């Protein structure tokens, strides 16, 4: 076994996760939008959504032990922490990190694709489940059993790429009565559907969902670490 493989095996055997970055910014979406938030971005994702704006997190990264992650989070002095990716649940130790963050007293959210089981995630975490629309090119990856696990503390998000996506998402909301389970967020995919068009559709249909724009894109475009 070469040195790189030995180091990888050692990291996997320890209480570590592979991270792309940890940074302080404003939460750009979901229920805690606008709050200063520490983002813990884990490396790796099994999905390839056509609109992904964090492809730089697919590969690379550095191994961090959980205590070092907690120390870095604490150094930023914010109450809100968001664990994101990539797809954070692709790393099994993510679940333990989430619990440790909750135990430390943070308001913790998890941004997950909805393709992986959320049942083991600490119920103190607000799970933001991104239901993939046909326009994402990953609709077949949705793990529909996750919807039965949602509570009022959780959120679901649809990234809408077209009018067809909107109609599909509207049908999913109605079929599963998602608005009775948790907050439902509709967000336009930048460059694919005009925000005003999506807003007008929601208003016209009196849809029981929250329209959202990604605040970080408005402020900083797709600049990493912002």
TrEMBL record:
Annotated substrate binding sites: 26-28, 41, 84
SUPFAM superfamilies with a match to the protein in the record: Radical SAM enzymes
Pfam family, one: Radical_SAM
Binding site for S-adenosyl-L-methionine: 51-53, 86
Residue span(s) of domain Radical SAM core: 32-226
InterPro entries per record: 7-CO-7-deazaguanine_synth-like, Aldolase_TIM, rSAM, rSAM_QueE_gams, rSAM_sf
Keywords associated with the record: 4Fe-4S, Iron, Iron-sulfur, Lyase, Magnesium, Metal-binding, Queuosine biosynthesis, S-adenosyl-L-methionine
Keyword check for DNA-binding: no
Pathway field: Purine metabolism; 7-cyano-7-deazaguanine biosynthesis
Cofactor binding notes: Binds 1 S-adenosyl-L-methionine per subunit. Binds 1 [4Fe-4S] cluster. The cluster is coordinated with 3 cysteines and an exchangeable S-adenosyl-L-methionine.
Residues that span the membrane, as ranges: none
Keyword RNA-binding listed: no
EC number: 4.3.99.3
Needed cofactors: S-adenosyl-L-methionine; [4Fe-4S] cluster; Mg(2+)
Record: residues binding [4Fe-4S] cluster: 45, 49, 52
Enzymatic reactions: 6-carboxy-5,6,7,8-tetrahydropterin + H(+) = 7-carboxy-7-carbaguanine + NH4(+)
Gene3D superfamilies linked to this entry: Aldolase class I (3.20.20.70)
GO molecular function: lyase activity
UniProt binding sites for Mg(2+): 54
Family according to the record: Belongs to the radical SAM superfamily. 7-carboxy-7-deazaguanine synthase family.
Function: Catalyzes the complex heterocyclic radical-mediated conversion of 6-carboxy-5,6,7,8-tetrahydropterin (CPH4) to 7-carboxy-7-deazaguanine (CDG), a step common to the biosynthetic pathways of all 7-deazapurine-containing compounds.
UniProt subunit comment: Homodimer.
The protein, known as: 7-carboxy-7-deazaguanine synthase
Organism: Lysobacter korlensis
Gene: queE
